[in-house]
Amino acid sequence: MKKGFVFLDEVLPGIRWDAKYATWDNFTGKPVDGYEVNRIVGTHELAAALHMAQEQAAILGYGLLLWDGYRPQRAVDRFLQWSEEPEDGRTKSKHYPNINRSEMIQKGYIATQSGHSRGSAIDLTLYRLDTGVLVPMGGDFDLMDVISHHEAKGITEAETKNRRLLRSFMESSGFNSYACEWWHYTLKNEPYPSSYFDFPIEPYVT
Protein backbone atom coordinates (compact mmCIF):
# COMPACT_ATOMS: atom_id res chain seq x y z
CA MET A 1 0.00 0.00 0.00
CA LYS A 2 1.35 3.39 -0.94
CA LYS A 3 1.80 5.83 1.94
CA GLY A 4 -1.26 8.07 2.23
CA PHE A 5 -3.70 5.30 1.23
CA VAL A 6 -5.79 2.99 3.41
CA PHE A 7 -8.33 0.18 3.23
CA LEU A 8 -11.55 2.13 3.75
CA ASP A 9 -13.20 -0.62 5.83
CA GLU A 10 -10.43 -0.19 8.44
CA VAL A 11 -11.22 3.46 9.09
CA LEU A 12 -14.98 3.61 8.45
CA PRO A 13 -16.75 1.40 10.99
CA GLY A 14 -19.95 -0.11 9.61
CA ILE A 15 -19.16 0.68 5.97
CA ARG A 16 -20.34 -1.93 3.45
CA TRP A 17 -18.54 -2.70 0.22
CA ASP A 18 -18.57 -4.96 -2.81
CA ALA A 19 -15.45 -4.35 -4.90
CA LYS A 20 -17.01 -5.26 -8.24
CA TYR A 21 -13.77 -5.23 -10.23
CA ALA A 22 -12.29 -7.88 -7.92
CA THR A 23 -15.19 -10.19 -8.89
CA TRP A 24 -16.77 -11.63 -12.02
CA ASP A 25 -19.71 -9.23 -11.65
CA ASN A 26 -18.51 -6.28 -13.75
CA PHE A 27 -18.73 -5.13 -17.35
CA THR A 28 -15.57 -7.01 -18.41
CA GLY A 29 -17.03 -10.26 -17.11
CA LYS A 30 -14.03 -11.27 -14.99
CA PRO A 31 -11.74 -9.91 -12.23
CA VAL A 32 -9.74 -6.93 -13.46
CA ASP A 33 -5.94 -6.50 -13.42
CA GLY A 34 -4.71 -4.97 -10.16
CA TYR A 35 -7.69 -6.06 -8.02
CA GLU A 36 -6.25 -8.95 -6.04
CA VAL A 37 -8.56 -8.76 -3.02
CA ASN A 38 -12.20 -7.70 -2.56
CA ARG A 39 -11.58 -4.51 -0.60
CA ILE A 40 -11.78 -0.79 -1.35
CA VAL A 41 -8.75 1.50 -1.06
CA GLY A 42 -8.60 5.30 -0.99
CA THR A 43 -6.63 8.24 0.35
CA HIS A 44 -6.91 9.31 3.97
CA GLU A 45 -8.60 12.50 2.75
CA LEU A 46 -11.19 10.48 0.85
CA ALA A 47 -11.87 8.41 3.96
CA ALA A 48 -12.38 11.52 6.11
CA ALA A 49 -14.88 12.98 3.65
CA LEU A 50 -16.71 9.67 3.35
CA HIS A 51 -17.00 9.57 7.13
CA MET A 52 -18.83 12.90 7.00
CA ALA A 53 -21.20 11.56 4.34
CA GLN A 54 -21.69 8.36 6.33
CA GLU A 55 -22.68 10.30 9.43
CA GLN A 56 -25.14 12.48 7.51
CA ALA A 57 -26.71 9.43 5.89
CA ALA A 58 -27.04 7.60 9.22
CA ILE A 59 -29.08 10.45 10.72
CA LEU A 60 -31.76 9.74 8.09
CA GLY A 61 -31.50 5.96 8.38
CA TYR A 62 -29.14 5.21 5.51
CA GLY A 63 -25.74 3.59 5.13
CA LEU A 64 -23.15 3.72 2.36
CA LEU A 65 -22.20 0.76 0.17
CA LEU A 66 -18.96 1.20 -1.80
CA TRP A 67 -18.29 -0.37 -5.22
CA ASP A 68 -14.93 1.11 -6.18
CA GLY A 69 -12.35 3.57 -4.91
CA TYR A 70 -8.69 3.68 -5.89
CA ARG A 71 -8.21 2.00 -9.28
CA PRO A 72 -4.74 0.92 -10.45
CA GLN A 73 -3.73 2.33 -13.85
CA ARG A 74 -3.29 -1.26 -15.06
CA ALA A 75 -7.04 -1.75 -14.55
CA VAL A 76 -7.78 1.34 -16.63
CA ASP A 77 -5.47 -0.04 -19.32
CA ARG A 78 -7.39 -3.33 -19.21
CA PHE A 79 -10.68 -1.45 -19.68
CA LEU A 80 -9.27 0.23 -22.78
CA GLN A 81 -8.01 -3.08 -24.14
CA TRP A 82 -11.39 -4.72 -23.46
CA SER A 83 -13.24 -1.92 -25.28
CA GLU A 84 -11.34 -2.80 -28.46
CA GLU A 85 -11.94 -6.56 -28.26
CA PRO A 86 -14.67 -8.29 -30.34
CA GLU A 87 -18.13 -8.29 -28.78
CA ASP A 88 -19.02 -11.55 -27.03
CA GLY A 89 -22.37 -10.42 -25.58
CA ARG A 90 -21.69 -11.72 -22.07
CA THR A 91 -22.26 -8.44 -20.22
CA LYS A 92 -23.87 -6.24 -22.83
CA SER A 93 -27.51 -6.58 -21.74
CA LYS A 94 -26.66 -5.66 -18.14
CA HIS A 95 -24.03 -2.97 -18.60
CA TYR A 96 -24.28 -1.37 -22.06
CA PRO A 97 -27.51 -2.47 -23.75
CA ASN A 98 -27.86 0.54 -26.05
CA ILE A 99 -24.28 1.29 -27.11
CA ASN A 100 -21.30 -0.60 -28.47
CA ARG A 101 -18.30 -1.16 -26.24
CA SER A 102 -16.22 0.82 -28.73
CA GLU A 103 -18.33 3.92 -27.91
CA MET A 104 -17.66 3.90 -24.16
CA ILE A 105 -14.70 6.30 -24.25
CA GLN A 106 -16.46 8.78 -26.52
CA LYS A 107 -19.59 8.77 -24.35
CA GLY A 108 -17.66 9.31 -21.10
CA TYR A 109 -18.04 5.92 -19.42
CA ILE A 110 -14.40 4.84 -19.77
CA ALA A 111 -11.43 7.20 -19.47
CA THR A 112 -7.87 6.74 -20.68
CA GLN A 113 -6.81 8.19 -17.32
CA SER A 114 -9.33 7.74 -14.54
CA GLY A 115 -9.79 9.99 -11.53
CA HIS A 116 -10.04 6.76 -9.54
CA SER A 117 -6.32 6.20 -10.12
CA ARG A 118 -5.59 9.40 -8.19
CA GLY A 119 -7.10 7.74 -5.13
CA SER A 120 -9.86 10.20 -4.24
CA ALA A 121 -12.82 9.07 -6.34
CA ILE A 122 -15.52 6.72 -5.10
CA ASP A 123 -18.41 4.74 -6.61
CA LEU A 124 -21.21 4.07 -4.14
CA THR A 125 -24.88 3.83 -3.32
CA LEU A 126 -27.23 3.95 -0.31
CA TYR A 127 -28.91 1.19 1.68
CA ARG A 128 -31.46 1.23 4.48
CA LEU A 129 -29.86 0.71 7.89
CA ASP A 130 -33.00 -0.98 9.27
CA THR A 131 -33.34 -3.59 6.51
CA GLY A 132 -29.97 -3.65 4.75
CA VAL A 133 -31.78 -3.34 1.41
CA LEU A 134 -30.21 -1.20 -1.30
CA VAL A 135 -32.14 1.97 -2.10
CA PRO A 136 -33.65 1.94 -5.62
CA MET A 137 -31.70 4.30 -7.88
CA GLY A 138 -33.19 3.57 -11.28
CA GLY A 139 -30.30 1.54 -12.64
CA ASP A 140 -27.41 -0.50 -11.33
CA PHE A 141 -23.69 0.28 -11.00
CA ASP A 142 -21.88 0.62 -14.34
CA LEU A 143 -25.04 0.73 -16.43
CA MET A 144 -23.51 2.70 -19.30
CA ASP A 145 -26.62 4.43 -20.55
CA VAL A 146 -28.27 7.85 -20.46
CA ILE A 147 -30.58 6.53 -17.74
CA SER A 148 -27.55 6.61 -15.42
CA HIS A 149 -27.12 10.36 -15.88
CA HIS A 150 -28.17 12.66 -13.07
CA GLU A 151 -31.76 13.89 -13.60
CA ALA A 152 -32.30 11.21 -16.26
CA LYS A 153 -35.73 10.73 -17.77
CA GLY A 154 -37.41 7.34 -17.50
CA ILE A 155 -36.92 6.61 -13.79
CA THR A 156 -39.48 6.99 -11.03
CA GLU A 157 -39.93 10.03 -8.84
CA ALA A 158 -38.72 8.02 -5.83
CA GLU A 159 -35.57 6.94 -7.69
CA THR A 160 -34.88 10.53 -8.69
CA LYS A 161 -35.26 11.63 -5.06
CA ASN A 162 -32.90 8.87 -3.91
CA ARG A 163 -30.22 9.98 -6.36
CA ARG A 164 -30.61 13.56 -5.15
CA LEU A 165 -30.36 12.39 -1.54
CA LEU A 166 -27.05 10.60 -2.19
CA ARG A 167 -25.83 13.66 -4.08
CA SER A 168 -26.72 15.94 -1.16
CA PHE A 169 -24.77 13.77 1.30
CA MET A 170 -21.75 13.68 -0.96
CA GLU A 171 -21.65 17.29 -2.14
CA SER A 172 -22.07 18.61 1.41
CA SER A 173 -19.14 16.39 2.46
CA GLY A 174 -16.71 17.82 -0.08
CA PHE A 175 -17.34 15.83 -3.26
CA ASN A 176 -18.17 16.72 -6.85
CA SER A 177 -20.66 14.62 -8.78
CA TYR A 178 -20.18 13.29 -12.32
CA ALA A 179 -23.00 14.07 -14.77
CA CYS A 180 -22.92 10.71 -16.59
CA GLU A 181 -22.92 8.41 -13.55
CA TRP A 182 -25.14 8.89 -10.51
CA TRP A 183 -22.83 6.64 -8.38
CA HIS A 184 -19.50 8.42 -9.09
CA TYR A 185 -18.05 11.20 -6.90
CA THR A 186 -14.62 12.82 -6.68
CA LEU A 187 -13.14 14.71 -3.74
CA LYS A 188 -13.01 18.46 -4.47
CA ASN A 189 -9.62 18.94 -2.79
CA GLU A 190 -7.65 15.89 -3.88
CA PRO A 191 -4.27 15.29 -2.25
CA TYR A 192 -2.81 13.93 -5.52
CA PRO A 193 -4.60 15.86 -8.29
CA SER A 194 -2.00 15.11 -10.97
CA SER A 195 -0.78 11.64 -9.98
CA TYR A 196 -2.06 8.39 -11.47
CA PHE A 197 -0.99 5.41 -9.36
CA ASP A 198 -0.58 1.78 -10.35
CA PHE A 199 0.11 -0.18 -7.17
CA PRO A 200 -2.13 -3.28 -6.96
CA ILE A 201 -4.82 -3.77 -4.33
CA GLU A 202 -3.36 -6.72 -2.43
CA PRO A 203 -4.16 -8.64 0.75
CA TYR A 204 -1.93 -8.20 3.74
CA VAL A 205 1.11 -10.47 3.86
CA THR A 206 1.87 -11.67 7.39
Topology overview:
Blueprint: E1 5-7, H1 8-11, E2 16-17, E3 41-43, H2 44-59, E4 62-68, H3 73-83, H4 92-95, E5 121-128, H5 157-171, E6 175-178, E7 181-187
Parallel strand pairs: 2-4
Antiparallel strand pairs: 1-3, 4-5, 5-7, 6-7
Descriptive report:
Its cofactor is Zn(2+). Belongs to the peptidase M15D family. The chain is α+β, with helices and mostly antiparallel strands and 206 residues long. 24% of the residues lie in helices and 17% in strands. The protein has 5 helices and 7 strands, in the order βαββαβααβαββ. It has helices at 8-11, 44-59, 73-83, 92-95, 157-171, and strands spanning 5-7, 16-17, 41-43, 62-68, 121-128, 175-178, 181-187. The strands form 2 sheets. A 5-stranded mixed β-sheet has the order 2-4-5-7-6, with helices on one face. A hairpin with a 2-residue loop joins strand 6 (175-178) and strand 7. The longest helix is centred in the first third of the chain and has 16 residues, at 44-59. The chain is globular and about 45 Å long. The two termini are 14 Å apart. The model has no long low-confidence stretch (mean pLDDT 94).
Number of strands: 7
> Considering DSSP H and I runs of 4 or more, what fraction of the residues is helical?
10-25%
Strands of the largest sheet, in order across it? Answer: 2-4-5-7-6
- Major sheet: size, sense and barrel closure? 5 strands, mixed
Rg on CA atoms, Å: 16 Å
What shape does the CA trace take? Answer: globular
Order of helices and strands: EHEEHEHHEHEE
How far apart the termini lie comes to: 14 Å
Q: Please state roughly what percent of the residues sit in beta strands, choosing from under 5%, 5-15%, 15-25%, 25-35%, 35-45% or over 45%.
A: 15-25%
Any low-confidence stretches, pLDDT <50, length ≥5? Answer: none
Structural class per helix/strand content?
Answer: alpha+beta
Overall average residue pLDDT: 94
The tally of helices reads 5
Function: Catalyzes hydrolysis of the D-alanyl-D-alanine dipeptide.
Site (Transition state stabilizer): 71
Binding site for Zn(2+): 116, 123, 184
Enzyme class: hydrolase
